[in-house]
Amino acid sequence: MMDQIVGWNVLRILWKGPSFPVRFHKTQLTCCRLFLWIGLLIPPLLPGKAIGAENHTENVVLVTMDGLRIQELFGGIDLKILSSVNQGKPVEESPLYQKYWAPTAEERREKLMPFFWKTLMRDHGSVAGNRTQGSTVLLTNGHRFSYPGYSEILTGQAHDDLIRSNDKIQNPNASVLEFLKDKLELSKNQVAAFASWEVMNWIAEKSPGAITINAGFEPYDHPSPEVQLLNKLQRETGTPWDSVRHDAYTFRFAMAHLRTYKPRVLYLSLGETDDWAHDGRYDRVLQSAEQCDAYFRQLWDYLQSEEQYRGKTSLVITTDHGRGLTGEDWTGHGSKIEGAQYIWMAFVNPDNNLRGEWANAETIYQNQIAATLSSFLGLDFHATHPEAGRPVARVLRK
Ligand SMILES: [Zn+2]
Questions:
Q1: Ligand 1 centroid to 250 CA: how many Å?
Q2: C-alpha distances in Å from residue 1, one per residue of 6, 7, 14, 40, 53
Q3: 151 C-alpha to ligand 1 centroid (Å)
Q4: Distance of CA 67 from the midpoint of ligand 1 (Å)
Q5: Which end of the chain is more exposed for a tag (fewer CB within 10 A), N or C?
Q6: Are residues 189 and 329 in the same domain?
Q7: Is residue 50 part of a domain?
Q8: What separation in Å is there between the alpha carbon of 166 and the centre of ligand 1?
């Protein structure tokens, strides 16, 4: 109330001069008004000040689902693929059809990822990449496989000449995770990456040991009996793949770290949606996507339950690459596979009002993620990485 009275008096003085008896010389009064106007006008002109005042983000969470196609994210189960894996039998008899089919794309995707669509994107964020609605998200790397994709996400640029394989080679460029750790002067525990794929140990940082990374079948060093049991179990419950563990372990290790160390920057890198696709197991791809959705719900509920995170955390959820479009090539991806260049990108920022799926929007690119994460925290990634993509402006403003 006091503020209101002072505010009204200031405005009245600005318009009319003081109503109470004050013996100002006319020129003194003019000066007084001038200073008040300057005082009111200058703050919005100061770079960073006005933006910082509106920016509530103090933590960022990046989540990736390896190789999940736009077709499943925006349209749920794909009948073309179901037919191709159903060995000539009528698709209607398939348990997958009975579980996930519905007449519209909206209903099908809500069956597959109910939390993502019915809560996260409806009430808290927006998602780009549905080409049937006029929104496209593209890779800028030409390789269309994992290391180049994750590197583009984390360093803000494609390096097709330097990054040409999924080999365990230290990333030659610093990641946005390292950038944020330096800029925010964070401890190693406050910037953490948990990944199902072991190669993330080499992708996520240029300087080995700069940040916390737990990837592949690596045990996570944590005192709780639950984590110690999970460390044993992840060895006993192998996967068909040598370098990728089950997402169940990755997710629970990440949550244990979140609860214990309260990181300001967390990267959760889930892998099974890609590996089951390579194996032609469409049933497991859908099951993994649905399971990831359940993880998103748990992650979100935790973030809302904690003072440090509630209303102060921005998220980007995306994928490293797309994959083939047809019943013949959906299992693969790569530079020659049409469709693998198309990805999707979801954003949750407490300072942004955009909701649901983007329609008739500008095309955005994978190389914009690093700068967008930085901008959520009020930092300019582009200033020190001029070759990197710019922040996605649409999700930064009110
Ligand atoms: Zn793959």
A1: 18
A2: 9, 10, 20, 20, 22
A3: 15
A4: 6
A5: N
A6: yes
A7: no
A8: 10
Same domain, 246 and 352: yes
Mark residue 349 as left, alpha or beta (left: phi above 0; alpha: psi -120 to 50; beta: remaining): beta
What CA–CA distances, in Å, run from 210 to 256, 357, 379, 394?
20, 36, 19, 32
Pairing between β-strand 342-343 and β-strand 137-138 as defined by DSSP bridges: antiparallel
Kindly report, residue by residue over 274-329, the tens digit of the pLDDT.
999 999 999 999 999 999 999 999 999 999 999 999 999 999 999 999 999 999 99
Q: How far is the CA of 385 from the centre of ligand 1 (A)?
A: 28
Residue 9 lies in a domain: yes
- Distance, CA 282 to ligand 1 centroid (Å)? 14
Distance between Cα 333 and ligand 1 center (Å): 7
Same domain, 40 and 93: no
Q: What is the pLDDT of residues 62-90, one digit of tens each?
A: 999 999 999 999 999 999 999 999 988 99
Beta bridge mates, 316 = 62, 347
Structural domain count, the chain: 2
* CA–CA distance, 303 with 230 (Å, rounded to integer): 23
> Cα of 318 to ligand 1 centre, how many Å?
15
pTM of the full predicted structure? 0.87
